[in-house]
Automatic annotation (TrEMBL):
Domain Radical SAM core span(s) in chain numbering: 156-396
Key words, A-Z: Oxidoreductase
Gene3D superfamilies: tm_1862 like domain
This protein's record includes keyword Transferase: no
The EC number(s) this enzyme carries: 1.3.98.3
Lineage, top ranks: Bacteria, Bacillati, Bacillota, Clostridia, Eubacteriales
Keyword field contains Repeat: no
InterPro entries the UniProt entry points to: Coproporphyrinogen-III_oxidase, Elp3/MiaA/NifB-like_rSAM, HemZ, rSAM, rSAM_horseshoe, rSAM_sf
Protein source organism: Faecousia intestinalis
UniProt name for this protein: Coproporphyrinogen dehydrogenase HemZ
Length: 480
C-alpha cells in the first residue's frame, strides 16, 4: 500500500501506524502525481494552526479525516500525535477499530508507566490510553496493571545500577518460527568452546569496566538461544567466570533461560542453582506433542513436566514458563489445555507470547497453515481468564512487529514474583550491558536518549572480532 507525505517528513510515525492498521497490505513506494489505492498524509503549517489531513483509498473506498492544532502548542510529540490521529480517523472509515487503537509502538506501557510516575492515578492512566490513543478498555487495563508492577520494580533501582545480559546463541535444533541468529548445535558444536573462551574475555573486561565506573549489577540474565545447550561443565565455567569477574553481591535477580526442556536434566539444574541463579525459565511453548513436532522442537510435554519437577527439586525461587499462541496445528481448545497443564505445575511466572513471524523463520515462507486471527484472539482471551482465576496478574507487556493480529506478549506473575530484568529491559529503565554474540548494549543517557552498541551477530564473527567487541565496551562505558 502506497504512502505519500505532503508538507512533512515524519514518515516513521505514519508508516508504522499504516503497517499496524493494514498489516495485510505490503508497503510500496509512492510519488507525485498520486492516484489509485494508498494513503496521503498532509500537513499544512499556518501562522496560527497546524492542519493535518489524511486520505486513504483501499479497494475502491476512501476514508478522509482532518484535524488541527495551535501552532504554538505543536512540539514534536504533539505534531506526531496530530498526524497519527488524523491518519487513524481516516483509516477507521475503512476498517473496524483495532484493540491497540492508534498505538503502533512495541512498548505501549511506557505511556502508562510515565503517567503513574508523574502522579496520575491508575484510572487516569487508563483513560489516557482510551481517549487519546483509542486503545480498547481491556488493553488499557492490561497496560496499567503492568505499569503498576513497573512502578514497584522501579523502587528497587538506585542511580548506579545496571543490568547485565549474557547471550548464548546456540540451540539444539532450530524451531520453525525462529528468526533469531541461533546456531544449531548439530552443525556448530565445534564453536562452543572457542565461543566460551571469547565470552570469558568479554566478561573479565566488563567486570573491570564495572568496577572502574562504580556501577552495580542489579539483575543478571543469561539468555539465548538456549544457554542450557551448554554442558554442566561449560555452564559452571561460564557462571564461575561471571562470579569471579563481576561483583554480584548487589543482585536482586539472577535468571538462566533453560528454554528447551530437552536440554535440562537434574545435574545441570543443580549446577546452575549452585552457582547462585534463583530464577529458571523452562519454555514448553505448547504442551501439545503434535504441535511441538510440527514446529521442530524435539521435546515432549512429558519432558517439560519432568524438567519442571527437577527445577523444583534443585530449589529455584521462581520458575517461568513460556507459551506461544498461534502455532501451526494449534487451536483454542488445545491452547487452553496447554495452559491448564502449565498452571497445574504452578510456576511463579507464565509468559504468553503471540506468534510473530519474521523473515528468516522457516514458517515465514508460509508452508504451514496458521490459526486465524480470531482463533488467536480466543486463545489469548481464554488465557487471560484462566490466569487471573489462578491468581496471576500482568507484570510486563510488549508488542512485536509482524505479530499475527493486533496482539501482544504478556508476562504474568503470582504476587511478589515479577521478573525484574524483563521489566527493566522492556521499559528501558536503566542501562543494559550485554555480552556475547548478537547481544545489544543499551546505555541510558542523562538526556533520556538511548545509545545502542551491537555485538557481531554470528558466533564465528564474534570470535573473530572479539578485540573490537572489547573496544566497543570501552566506548559504551565512557557514556555511563
Ligand atoms: S529455542 Fe528459541 S532461539 Fe532456539 S531455535 Fe527455538 S525459537 Fe530460536
Amino acid at each position: 500500500m502506497k504512502l505519500l507525505l505532503r508538507g512533512h517528513d515524519d514518515r516513521y510515525a505514519v508508516e508504522q501506524l499504516q503497517l499496524a492498521l493494514f498489516p495485510e497490505e505490503p508497503m510500496e513506494p509512492a510519488a507525485e502525481p498520486f492516484s489509485g489505492d494508498g494513503a496521503v498524509s498532509t500537513l499544512h503549517t499556518g501562522a496560527v494552526w497546524l492542519t493535518a489531513t489524511a486520505e486513504i483509498t483501499l479497494h475502491g473506498k476512501t476514508g478522509r479525516a482532518c484535524r488541527r492544532l495551535r501552532a504554538a502548542e505543536a512540539d514534536v510529540p504533539a505534531r506526531r500525535r496530530l498526524l497519527q490521529n488524523t491518519y487513524y480517523e481516516a483509516a477507521m472509515c475503512l476498517r473496524e477499530p483495532p484493540a491497540w487503537g492508534s498505538l503502533s509502538g512495541v512498548r505501549p506501557t511506557k505511556l502508562t508507566t510515565r503517567a503513574l510516575l508523574e502522579g496520575k492515578t491508575p484510572a487516569e492512566a487508563e483513560k489516557l490510553l482510551r481517549t487519546r490513543y483509542h486503545v480498547s478498555p481491556e488493553r488499557s487495563r492490561l497496560c496499567v496493571e503492568a505499569s503498576e508492577a513497573t512502578v514497584q520494580a522501579a523502587q528497587l533501582l538506585r542511580p548506579q545500577d545496571v543490568s547485565v545480559y549474557v547471550g548464548i546463541p546456540f540451540c539444539p535444533t532450530r524451531c520453525a518460527y525462529c528468526s533469531f541468529v541461533s546456531s544449531s548445535i548439530e552443525r556448530f558444536s565445534g564453536l562452543l568452546e572457542p565461543y566460551l573462551d571469547a565470552l570469558v574475555r568479554e566478561i573479565a573486561h566488563t567486570g573491570d569496566l564495572l568496577r572502574a565506573s562504580g556501577r552495580t549489577v542489579r539483575t543478571l540474565y543469561i539468555g539465548g538461544g538456549t544457554p542450557t545447550t551448554l554442558s554442566s561443565a561449560q555452564l559452571r565455567r561460564l557462571m564461575e567466570a561471571l562470579r569471579t569477574h563481576i561483583d554480584l553481591t548487589e543482585l536482586v535477580e539472577y535468571t538462566v533461560e533453560g528454554g528447551r526442556p530437552d536440554t535440562l536434566d537434574a545435574e545441570k539444574l543443580e549446577t546452575i542453582a549452585s552457582m547462585g541463579c534463583g530464577r529458571m525459565s523452562i519454555n514448553p511453548q505448547t504442551m501439545n506433542d503434535a504441535v511441538l513436532a510440527r514446529v521442530g522442537r524435539r521435546h515432549t510435554a512429558a519432558q517439560t513436566a519432568a524438567a519442571y519437577e527437577a527445577a523444583r527439586a534443585a530449589g529455584y525461587d521462581a520458575v517461568n514458563m513460556d507459551l506461544i499462541a498461534g502455532l501451526p496445528g494449534d487451536d483454542p481448545g488445545s491452547f487452553a489445555d496447554s495452559l491448564r497443564q502449565v498452571l497445574a505445575l504452578a510456576p511463579e511466572n507464565v509468559t504468553v507470547h503471540t506468534l510473530a513471524l519474521k523473515k528468516g523463520a522457516d514458517l515465514y515462507a508460509g508452508r504451514m497453515e496458521l490459526p486465524s486471527a480470531d482463533a488467536v484472539a480466543q486463545m489469548l482471551a481464554g488465557a487471560e481468564t484462566s490466569l487471573r482465576a489462578a491468581g496471576y496478574t500482568p507484570y510486563y507487556l510488549y508488542r512485536q512487529k509482524y505479530m499475527s493480529g493486533s496482539f501482544e506478549n504478556i508476562g504474568w506473575c503470582r504476587p511478589g514474583t515479577a521478573g525484574l530484568y524483563n521489566i527493566y529491559m522492556m521499559e528501558e529503565m536503566h542501562s543494559i550491558v550485554s555480552l556475547g554474540g548478537g547481544a545489544m548494549t543499551k546505555i541510558n543517557l542523562p538526556d533520556g536518549r538511548l545509545e545502542r552498541f551491537h555485538n557481531p551477530k554470528f558466533p564465528q564473527q564474534y570470535l573473530e572480532r572479539i578485540d573490537d567487541v572489547l573496544a566497543q565496551k570501552d566506548a559504551a562505558f565512557r557514556l555511563l
